[in-house]
TrEMBL record, chains A, B, C, D:
PANTHER family: ASPARTATE-SEMIALDEHYDE DEHYDROGENASE
Gene Ontology MF: a single term: protein dimerization activity
Protein family: Belongs to the aspartate-semialdehyde dehydrogenase family.
Protein name per its UniProtKB record: Aspartate-semialdehyde dehydrogenase
Taxonomic placement: Archaea, Methanobacteriati, Thermoplasmatota, Thermoplasmata, Thermoplasmatales
Residues of the Semialdehyde dehydrogenase NAD-binding domain: 6-132
Gene3D superfamilies for the chain: Dihydrodipicolinate Reductase, domain 2 (3.30.360.10), NAD(P)-binding Rossmann-like Domain (3.40.50.720)
Keywords: NADP, Oxidoreductase
Length: 341, 341, 341, 341
């Protein structure tokens, strides 16, 4: 029997860290051996360190694990550190781990745009993982939750000659973390601004759709206008995307291509990969948070309407699973299958 | 002392009807003399006929008014009938009133696109009221709540040579009426479709910005792509509008023009007209439902960002006041000042 | 291999019916063979008849089943009809089925208080199922969702000599059905009244805790004061119960008795029975809807505080699973094990 | 013309402080001359120091006021300091002001139970203000929001010989301050515990209903069991109160006494005093947050049901107005009329 991949979870008490534990609870070949969070929790049991918010109880096997630090010496025993650290502390901690020879796959924003570090949404650009072959210590980033979700159906958009993409994102409260927004500030309200988001989304997507040259990612140029607002839903980022093409497209072909977009089929043991990463809905009242987030790794697309070279799509994805915890696990699984892990 | 304008309220027990009563409760020169609703309520007191949902109690002076029918004979004693009828019954009732010589100003959708009936958002097109001069019986329509709100800042957009307008509307639950959406269907959810809305909005706006010729409205052609979704907020429709211009615009001039857009200043006694119909916000987290709906007749515009001939605005308005009950009262006030009432 | 128990689901398109299908989707020995709902849906596929609201998709095996009527001739082929009918139609339909020799286990309110029909919350009074032995056609009722949940920890209360029970129930919106309450009426609001609830709860609980004599249930007298309010949560009924005892009780014994209350342990194949029907929480901020409804068949009890012969408990249960769909399935499973099915 | 009473507002940027400014914006004889908040805001304009959350804009006259410290020297120019300070800083600041001869009326919890400091809910115990006559520097406390609201109808309960009072309080999110609870923690959830609340409520009420003897308040003994839970509504604390009396009461007399409870009628210029502090509702679905909080100083009582010497009432009040900002203003107004201010 193959040895399991040993991992640490950094930021394990946050909302994304908790979701990682849920996903990895019964994983067939990834084994969580270390949990860490902020310094004050070192030495405590996980169950005493966490304000558990995931539905269901803390998985039994993690309850009594003793919290360790984020220092390199506490992670010498793992193959990979999976980081769900908050951005303000991630930079220092992650760079220290890398300098000490510890591999990191990270959800945190620092270094996402570094040209020599792959920014992976596996179905879209697992090929960028080839950059790792020349790295002694592996360092991989995952995109922002919204970039991850909205980029998925763009794979088909970018196969055509388009003029402009206009995107409005309606983002869930959990995207700001469990305590990021008070009830009084967002209930029965919409906040029409999310700091940094409107810059990150096009930048990160342009890197994901870039190509590798001389061990660097050359970003793809995009003409994309993004507006991001916070809406009072707990989980699920929705996007309304309007694309203007230069030439006519065949909308049925477009939909079929997305339905049949299964680039990871060639890999065998991707336990978190959805059968179809993009689900196309023909019912006019889909996608909906209430109906379409039960498999958190799928991206749901509906309201496709095409006229006069203009296409409209409504996109929905789970910001905690596909947008954060799940994408990191899928990235590691893909690396393992490609032989770069 | 001038005689008061006598009005009936049709659909007086609905959410828009109640809002009309609140607005007219202490009106200096409009006097509500008849209330009607569905047939089963005729003869009952208003207070026994209504499921009152407006904040605060039923205005004392309406509590004991006896409900009348919607038939013409019950409205011979008024100068105007103000209609907040549901669309499925409005057509027959309104046409019968008109045929019997009773003037009607109506919020309901039937006949909104009729070329000889003015569709009035007073600041934008009070001039269209001139059509009334040749009508024996006056029949005026108000636009859909979303059309009303979103059209307001477009007054400045359409002064420039633009290529395309893309609009995403995030619409409040009250837009579907008090019982239109169940809690289970919309709480913690977004429904990405509102029946008929995406067609109505550009059509009605093209009529509002049309011009009068031969006693008809000639619609203005628009190149506008609209997506409408229902969000879990109670009151307030928000729009994210992206405009591409053909030539560069001066964004500061654009904002100032909207700030100074006060076309009704020439009229004296418009009690419901806001001093400035368009409020421009420079703070990046405005407009918000929580902060910007206390004067329900104003339209709030923020997040103005201009680059490469592309302008983005976030628009917010009160769908029950400006979008429905208030616009009807302001229409009557304007007609009165213009001498066509 | 044992033959499976064949069942029909009546009211299969409602929120409780859907939950039954979810629970029975992979049941090892109960097989759903008929689905019915209102007359207008007869002959249609289930997927075309239902507004599916359960998380996740319609189970594949039910999608294409053809809807049948509620008439007896359509249910001759089953061992049991499970009824999730709305109360206003349940009486006629159920009595007709019974008269035609078709066994019924029902969630609906009519006949719940009939002295010769068992009203079953399995852990509490499976013994009442002995009444079925003399019935040619089996007719079993399940209690109201709130009665079901609140009665569970009362098993221990009623072992002591008590003076009075005061109960405030904070009930979820789904208890009124999927479309029972509009968003505008209950969001950010509490409605301090639920029709019929305050009478049903003590009456049904007095029957559940009654005893069998001459093939009838003799109700147990209760001194219980109930107030029921509707709160803006989607799933989960909470109760605040204050009990005054006549003599001192040992609170630790009380808690342990509830923890060890496992009356169904003697039966082997109860697939929906929770290992422990009552979970006692010592943390002061439990139970919570967000944390404690993942196993919908458990009843969660916390905030136990005892002083001066007065005990306070906060009780929480899933009104759709334990309170409706799950209790019916567990009732059938128990009947099967007892040999009365 | 009488000189206005000059006041400072401490904690002026919090949710209660903002509400005070709204109430005092146009007050006929109270003039806000100083605003203070945390040290870091000293010298800034109010509009730059506050995250304004009250509906409507910041009152014009306060926008540009320069923030001062909470130190005594900054408040020598006022007649009274009104304190809406958070409890953790209130003790030191208030005691320092008092020691420096500055009068304080405070909402904050420290010293509420001190026997020589009146704890005032004006209608209930304005008589306790007589304690001030012998104080050189006046120090008055207002009760906790829930104590304030729930005590009001108890005035009639305590006129009778009762055995026990059981109270369940369903408290709004704003009671924890604007940022006290995250959206993720309380939306679609109930938290069955509020730190300190269950002790404070009976203690404070027993003091409010106490009597003055030797310049001290002797608390009234109460037999009261309280459970407090947090519910997902923004404003409005509801209580379900069950009272067992020793003798039969006349329920109609009881209701009429509450309806006619107008102890402040003797004072003339109480601008914030409601005409009737207790409103009795006979409709079974009242009181409701949605309908009954428009006059924030009234306490609404409904669902009165009496049987077997047991009375049940549902009580609702505005926790920000009557429960905090309004009660402080009304206290000062009453002191002014009584000649102790």
């Amino acid at each position: 029997m193959m040895d399991k991949i040993k991992v640490s979870i950094l930021g394990s008490t946050g909302v994304v860290g908790q979701k990682m534990l849920r996903i990895l609870e019964n994983h067939p070949y990834i084994d969580v051996v270390n949990l860490s969070a902020s310094r004050s929790k070192i030495g405590k049991k996980y169950s005493e360190s966490v304000a558990w918010v995931e539905p269901g109880d803390i998985p039994e096997r993690f309850r009594d694990m003793k919290m360790v630090s984020t220092d390199p010496e506490d992670h010498k025993n793992v193959d990979y550190v999976l980081s769900a650290l908050p951005p303000e502390v991630a930079e220092d901690i992650e760079i220290k781990l890398i300098k000490n020879g510890i591999n990191v796959i990270s959800n945190a924003s620092p270094f996402r745009m570094a040209e020599n570090i792959p920014l992976i949404n596996p179905e879209l650009n697992y090929q960028h993982l080839e950059l790792l072959e020349k790295m002694d210590t592996k360092f991989v980033k995952n995109p922002n939750c919204t970039s991850t979700i909205m980029s998925m159906p763009m794979v088909e958009v970018l196969r055509h000659d388009y003029k402009k993409i206009t995107l409005s994102t309606l983002q869930a409260v959990s995207g700001a973390g469990f305590t990021g927004l008070s009830y009084m500030s967002i209930d029965d309200n919409i906040i029409p601004y999310i700091h940094g988001e409107e810059e990150k989304i096009p930048a990160e997507i342009s890197k994901m759709f870039g190509f590798v040259s001389n061990n660097k990612i050359i970003n793809r140029e995009l003409n994309m206008y993004v507006t991001s607002v916070r809406v009072p839903v707990k989980v699920g980022h929705m996007g309304i995307m309007n694309i203007e093409f230069n030439d006519d497209i065949d909308i049925e072909n477009f939909k079929n291509s997305l339905r049949n977009f299964t680039p990871l089929k060639k890999f065998k043991n991707l336990y978190t990969a959805p059968k179809n990463p993009v689900i196309i809905h023909d019912e006019e009242n889909r996608p909906q948070h209430k109906m379409d987030l039960s498999n958190g790794m799928e991206i749901h697309v509906g309201r496709l309407e095409y006229k006069n070279k203009n296409l409209r799509m409504v996109i929905l994805g789970d910001n905690l699973v596909r947008g954060a915890a799940g994408i990191t696990v899928l990235t590691l699984e893909t690396m393992n299958e490609m032989g770069v892990a």
